[in-house]
Design a protein that fits this description.
4-diphosphocytidyl-2-C-methyl-D-erythritol kinase; alpha+beta; Ribosomal_Su5_D2-typ_SF; 8-stranded mixed sheet; nucleotide-binding; Alpha-Beta Plaits; 30% strand; binds adenosine-5'-triphosphate; globular
């Protein structure tokens, strides 16, 4: 048997549009998702007992059944009971670098890494779409996190269509350490405030889904027009989160003043990101925003966009 060390990338939303309600209680979404090379490390080690054990270096991340990485391992054990009985349990060590509760899919990408890692460790030979189907049972962002890159996502976010890779773009991410936003709260509040405008008939739903396929962000990506990509960033949830958290609004304004390609809140926030065309420019923007805001609670990162999500960093026999 082998142990595996994997890296799991964060995601940002280049486009997030809420179209309506779904019969399953989730929102119908149209999104463009993008992997960012800011990664957690997930170490998987076989255990001789039948336990699933999780450790994490971040104090706010639960290490029991609530952890998405734990849930991923439990799902694999339930789906493949004979293999689980044969190979035994697993110890999962999560080294967090992706900020928690940040709108960067940190938990989802950890779950995706466990699915990919256990498939290897247990020699199951699952296909990418089988892994994505398992991922969809854990959370809407997990199927994307299994593959990564640049994707158009519809439905709950699990119906994915690949878009051309974006290479020469850097991202500056900023988040107040003490601030986190509940994804459930953001979507519920959006429903309360804007639910009256939701699309309800099936045909209109399909029209709106199709519109994003031929929409300006997808066109900008197809033409690899970085200026246009920056200008077309869009997130419906800003309408909820920015009025509630003025410091996030100010952060966004600071980025705007730095001559970046574009700036936007990611997912349900509160992380704000800005896109630049070079690492040098990204580092300059990071420094200037750090100086302008001068708050020790503010954390900033610079990372390139990436076309992969889960990578095997190392593997060795045990
Ligand atoms: P998303 O963008 O998918 O909504 P997020 O980036 O906003 O997610 P996460 O970092 O995934 O948020 O964390 C949300 C909550 O999930 C945290 O408050 C934490 O308690 C819980 N959680 C469970 N498992 C994990 C994990 N492996 N990593 C981080 N948080 C986790």
């Amino acid at each position: 048997m082998r142990s595996y060390s994997l890296t799991a990338a964060a995601k940002i939303n280049l486009h997030l549009e809420i179209i309506g309600d779904r019969p399953d209680g989730f929102h119908e979404l149209a999104m463009v998702l993008q992997s960012v090379d800011l990664c957690d490390r997930i170490d998987l080690r076989p255990l001789s007992t039948d336990q699933i054990r999780v450790h994490c270096n971040h104090p706010e991340v639960p290490v029991d059944q609530r952890n998405l990485a734990y849930k991923a391992a439990a799902l694999m054990a339930a789906e493949f009971p004979d293999t689980f009985a044969q190979y035994g349990g697993v110890e999962i060590n999560i080294h967090k670098q992706i900020p928690v509760g940040a709108g960067l899919a940190g938990g989802s990408t950890n779950a995706a890494a466990v699915l990919v890692g256990l498939d290897l460790m247990w020699q199951l030979g699952l296909t990418q779409s089988e892994l994505q189907e398992l991922g969809a049972r854990l959370g809407s962002d997990v199927p994307f996190c299994v593959v990564g890159g640049t994707m158009l996502a519809t439905g709950r976010g699990e119906e994915l269509a690949p878009l051309p890779d974006l290479n020469q773009i850097y991202v500056v991410l900023a988040k107040y350490r003490s601030l986190s936003v509940s994804t459930a709260w953001a979507y519920q509040t959006f429903r309360q405030q804007f639910g009256h405008a939701y699309v309800s008939n099936v045909q209109e739903l399909e029209t709106r889904r199709q519109r994003v396929h031929s929409g300006p962000m997808v066109a900008a990506i197809a033409h690899r027009n970085n200026t246009e990509i920056g200008q077309r960033l869009y997130n419906d949830l800003e309408r909820i989160v920015l009025p509630e958290y003025p410091q996030v609004q100010r952060l966004r304004e600071q980025f705007q003043q730095q001559g970046v390609l574009g700036t936007m809140m990611s997912g349900s926030g509160p992380t704000v990101f800005a896109l630049t065309e070079s690492q040098t420019q990204a580092e300059q923007v990071r420094e200037r925003v750090q100086v302008a805001i001068a708050d020790p609670d503010l954390e900033l990162w610079v990372a390139p966009l990436t076309n992969t999500s889960i990578r095997i960093a190392s593997s060795r026999p045990v």
